[in-house]
Amino acid sequence: MSSEPTTETEGADEFRCTSCGAGLTYKPGTLKMKCPYCGSENEIPKDFQRIEEQKIEDLPVMPALSTTGFGVQQRSFKCERCGAIQSIDPKLIAVKCAFCGSDAILETPSNSKMVRPTALVPFAINAEVSKQKYLDWLKKLWFRPGDLKRTASQAGVSGVYAPFFTFDAQAESDWSGWRGTYYYTTETYTVTVDGRPQTRTRQVQHTRWSYRSGHHSQFYNDILVNASRGLPEKYLKKIYPFHLNGLIGYSTEFLAGFSAEEYTKNPVSLWLTARQVMASSERNACSRELNGDTQRGLHVNTQLNDPKWKHILLPVFVSSYLYRGKRYNFLVNGQTGEVQGEAPLSWAKIGGLIAAVAGIIGGVVLLGRYLGWF
Which pTM was predicted? Predict the structure, then answer.
């Protein structure tokens, strides 16, 4: 899927070219919308939505309908394989899941109570660049089929705004525990050598324990938690980081030409995940303050004060392709260009390497026998 398509896509009804009246699409890496027909560019108004965090007690409570949905007319499709719900322009016909490539997608009612995003990171690269980055990534892999690049180059690439939640909190932790410091003493012992006793010495390690306690404070800002079921977590985390200093207030213009995924994970469960991340970080920080060569009985009591959240969208290019009957997926960070994904192995090449190594070893053995090494 091109980021500068030749057909009208998301937002076409809402955003019209001032020159020819055709539907505009967002131009990655800019604050402009581009007409795919006449090439005219229109500036995106800079009165973006203000980025605001919400109190955690409001997390399970859906706000008024004026702040739900994406704020632009779309159709939603749910994938029966991966569970992703993607929203696309109502004029387009979705025939495949953008996330896993499955044909088993069914039109489904949009979630009218979905919390509208507060902010997003716009796409910085287009689909052609993202595909080339994947092909370059494939070149660096070993033992891949010779025709893989040709097959992968035929895959379509879709730009998707993926849903995330971020969480903030001020952590206050009281800690206590026992710090162990190693010290050594010299021990004398006797051994028998050639039937005669000999005296020798060795260093023996001991631990001196001391009780310590203290307090640790830290503000956690924008702990990022994935709210998508469609994106494979094991690859998504590998295309991190997203630079959240690039967040701008949510505006529907940036969705023009791209699809967006509705979050399908419970926001309350996402907060529990963020809490675990903060608590684990606090425990590690308190352990560092306790210090010592070893520790025991570390107890940490953490309070998370004034926790807040926001719903954001982050740019990801997704694609999948079939190679000899098996499907492979890859992701590209739409902000940084970082690539992760799957690629088939060439067992013929691996077998050839094994045979070559075995041949070399066999040749060395024969040469060694001939020269009398063995």
Answer: 0.78
